[in-house]
Amino acid sequence: MNNAHHPQLDDDRLMLLSWSTPVLAQFVMLIIMCMQRHWLYVLMLAPGLLGSALSLAVMAIRSRRARQATSQADTGISNSQTSPDVAWQSSRSSSDLSRIPCIDFEQLHHLDDDPLIWRSIVRRWFETNSSGCDIGMTAHAPFAIDLVHAGPHAMVAGTTGSGKSALLISWCMALSIRYSPEALHFVFLDFKGGSTFNMLEHLPHTVGNVCDLDLSHAIRALNAIERELIRREALVSEERVSHINQLKHPPARLVVVIDEFHALRDRLPDYMQRLNRLASLGRSLGMHLIVCTQNPVGQVHADMKANISLNVCLRVTDRMQSHELIGTNAAADISPSMPGGAYCHDGQRVMGFRCSAVRHVETLVDAIDTAARFHGCTLQQPLFSAPLAEHVTMRDLRMLGDEPWHGIPFALADNGVVVEPISLDIAHGNIAIIGAYGRGKTNLLLHCASQLYLSGMRMVRYTYKIRNVYHTGRENHDARHTRDTYVSEGHGRLAWFVDDADDLLDPFRTDDAANDLRMALADPDVTVICAVEKPNAVLADRCPTRIVFPTGDRTNDLMNGIPGPILDGFEPDDYMIAGRAVFIRQASACLVQCVERKDFADPSDSF
């Protein structure tokens, strides 16, 4: 029996062969590129080849240790005493897991000892003895994971039904009762339909939660994570320290939890570099990554895997997957009747444990929220927001922004991460509103004019077109005399709204109305806000601020000043949304959704 080959050794050889083949292929490609002097391709191939070679070397070392351990075990067991139940170390490990007591999360943390759970949570927030969090039980004691010191990043793997979701919820709950919302934030990316983190979204620690049902929302989350990383880099650089804990006022730690990472990688491959950068820089910036997947083999980039030192493996169906994550085959032998059984490799040792599932998630979330309010924690601002809505009202602007406004609040602006109110400042020159019929130009003009009236500004003029004839709103006395008197007394300026101004801006038109508009555009004491269907040279020269409704014709939209990256984010349905426009001011541009007037009326009735 001692001379027989174990099947697991054959699996190791096949695994090493499967990893050595791509390394050899990349090496051959590198030699060919060098011979042809394609140095750019050499630079692109070299990092991947180096990462694959290092992974192969680590696997070879682990395989050698496993063979040595197996050989020692075979030597120490006589034929007469050996039985099938104890022949394999992995079988003994599986039986060890079955002897671990199965208790729920509330029992593990003694939360049932106090009828008011929130009081015990507040006490824990004041403790500073350890950064470890109990998430389960070993054979003799609670099992704790220290993401700060053993991480800073972790990978969780397990097949369907192994208990990955329960483990993630327990881990996040353990962190939540260990750290206050002022010390720890969560961002959840659920690519399993949004079912895993539904309840955790209501934690006071949560600053973002998205699922794969809305990819545009997921993209905003990844952009927000990148922006937060850059912000923290700037903070560390400004105070000339090496770690964010050395700052005078360090920000809260941010834990990004991703369920079904392979689905995220498949659906948004262009954004993986952001997560790779988080994995490489997160330790010193207080940002952590918990990646959960069904199959760890080939699903995680080598650059990211090199920075993940904490691996948790629940039941898997392939010994290669178990060996890839924890260096042994033990996780492949966990019984299907034991959900929550897992092994953790922290870089030094492998420990078997059973996860303690949360008995009542909603009750515990409510207790944590009560504890946060008692603790005096301020409401955490979301790291990112949902994409622009199709309909926006003044109530939406007031909910997201603080009054008084500096200008005319007219839309919600989207910078790709957050949505916030934006206003028109009539003191900074003329404004052109460009778009096709039916896109919302008249609605926007009426809204801005009414807001000026409500603010107490008396010098507002409105010109509109009916049956090819322009009409100007009635005024009590001569407009030019009133304007000159008003400005001379230091009260302000005239705001002139002109709808359907294309004909008035015709360079061949010489009547009084066209001349008055040209003079007003050049007058520094007058702000002209005009709506046209097509841009022209006069507006390009006299209007530093533009609101452009895209047409769907990329060439025309680019000529109208809309940047290409903003157009790339437009879906076909976005061009049909009334009020969806691009706000351009000098060298900056952003996507906006203009306010919708509920009391829309004909201009002749309003002015």
TrEMBL record:
| Stored SUPFAM superfamilies | P-loop containing nucleoside triphosphate hydrolases (SSF52540)
Recorded coiled-coil stretches: none
Cite the FtsK domain residue spans from the record: 140-323
Mind telling me which Pfam families this protein's record contains?
A: FtsK_SpoIIIE
What's one GO MF term for it?
Answer: ATP binding
**Organism domain of life:** Bacteria
User: Which InterPro entries does this entry report, sorted A to Z?
Assistant: AAA+_ATPase, FtsK/SpoIIIE/SftA, FtsK_dom, P-loop_NTPase
Q: Which SMART domains match?
A: AAA (SM00382)
**Which keywords has UniProt assigned to this entry?**
ATP-binding, Membrane, Nucleotide-binding, Transmembrane, Transmembrane helix
Q: What is this protein called?
A: DNA segregation ATPase-like protein
Organism, by scientific name, is Bifidobacterium dentium (strain ATCC 27534 / DSM 20436 / JCM 1195 / Bd1)
